[in-house]
Fold this sequence. Notes:
This protein is mainly α and 92 residues long. It has one domain (6-91). 36% of the residues lie in helices and 9% in strands. It is built from two helices and three strands. It has helices at residues 6-25, 79-91; strands at 41-42, 53-55, 60-62. It has a three-stranded antiparallel β-sheet, with no helix packed on it. A hairpin with a 4-residue loop joins β2 and β3. It is globular and about 35 Å long. The protein starts with 5 loop residues before the first helix and ends with a helix.
Amino acid sequence: MNELSEEEQVIFLRGLxxxxxxxxxxxxxxxxxxxxxxQFFQPNRYPGSDRPHHCALVNAPFGDRHLRLNCAEHVAxxxxxxxxxxxxxxxx
Length: 92
């Protein structure tokens, strides 16, 4: 993706994740194994950082450009946690 700057890549990925979420809610595509719906995802644990999120599975921080859309290690969060994660993520 040399055509897009790092900032553009982050913006594009965020928009893509939001579109996927909307299509899932409409029942047009199946639920993907994304970070936002994983029990290991801790959004904005390090606010103000370029890697604000935390993955408890690998015990490491990461940024929006590293959010996964289909993670092999994904474990679905309970519905309330997933809802809170989506609310946080979609409000950005």
